[in-house]
Design a protein that fits this description.
Elements (H helix, E strand, L loop, with lengths): L4 E5 L2 E4 L1 H8 L3 E5 L2 E5 L4 E6 L3 E12 L5 E10 L13 E2 L8 E16 L5 E20 L12 E4 L11 E3 L5 E9 L9 E5 L8 E2 L13 E2 L1 H5 L5 E2 L18
Parallel strand pairs: 8-17
Antiparallel strand pairs: 1-2, 2-7, 3-4, 5-6, 6-7, 9-10, 9-12, 10-11, 11-14, 12-13, 13-14, 15-16
């Protein structure tokens, strides 16, 4: 059990790229056109709904962006529901970071553990335990290109809050309830007088990532396209597109103020 994922659209989720990279150390990764597919193992998302309903989503393909974000294409693997009715409740995206000083809230699962035992029938039984965690703070410095060339070498912003290991890939919400970033790193200071400091990955770079999710009958099937097309066609809800540099998206007409 590693990391956290956030739904952004029908059969689409985001997580931290380093979470997918961590899984690739233990499982075989099959490279595909524009993406990666697990072979010999399964990468799944566990969703827990009210009423103790469980759904396992299989990650069919993971596209790695130029930032610390991976885009996941999902299919339902199994569920505890006899007749599941899936209602996609997805967060709208704010592709540019909130201004410094604004309050944000992050959510993720930390200290996840799995214990395997045998049930009375002899089948394997999994006990999953984790700590759903909410962390609130204010935005500090914003790094439009990167904070440094070694670790945080992508657009990101500071948050004066504690992001614990396991929360990676979890959502960061701005004051309007928009998804404005993903948890990517946290810092622990030895000096108790120094407040917590963490980092969130800015979302706009994922829009340049090419994916190949079929979008419906009125679109070509089995083709690759930059993710910004989902935003321009309003398949996913995205704000602040007018703040982006059009040079990053050749051939696309972005809204302007």
């Amino acid at each position: 059990m590693v990391g956290t994922a956030t739904l952004i659209g029908t059969h689409l989720a985001l997580t931290a790229k380093h979470v997918v990279d961590y899984a690739s150390k233990f499982f075989q990764i099959k490279k595909m056109s524009g993406g990666h597919e697990l072979s010999g193992a399964s990468l799944r998302l566990l969703q827990v709904l009210p009423g103790l309903k469980y759904r396992y989503w299989n990650v069919d393909t993971a596209w790695r962006s130029c930032t610390d974000i991976a885009i996941l294409h999902l299919s339902l693997d199994r569920t505890s529901e006899a007749d599941p009715t899936i209602e996609w409740r997805c967060l709208p995206l704010r592709v540019t970071p909130p201004p410094s000083g604004q309050k944000v809230v992050a959510f993720g699962y930390r200290e996840s553990k799995v214990q395997v035992s045998k049930g009375q029938s002899g089948n394997a039984h999994l006990d999953l335990n984790d700590k759903p965690t909410t962390s609130a703070g204010v935005v500090g410095r914003i790094f439009p290109a990167q904070r440094e060339s070694s670790m945080l070498n992508f657009p990101c912003f500071e948050v004066h809050a504690q992001f614990a290991p396991g929360m990676s890939g979890g959502l960061v919400l701005d004051e309007d309830g928009w998804l404005c970033g993903l948890v990517c790193a946290g810092t622990n200071f030895v000096d108790p007088s120094v407040g917590p400091l963490s980092y969130a990955a800015t979302l706009w770079p994922i829009l340049a990532t090419e994916i190949s999710v079929d979008r419906g009958d009125k679109y070509p099937r089995g083709v690759r396209y930059p993710m910004i097309d989902l935003a321009l066609d309003k398949i996913i809800s995205v704000s602040h597109l007018e703040d982006l540099d059009a040079a990053h998206f050749p051939g696309r007409t972005l809204p302007r103020r």
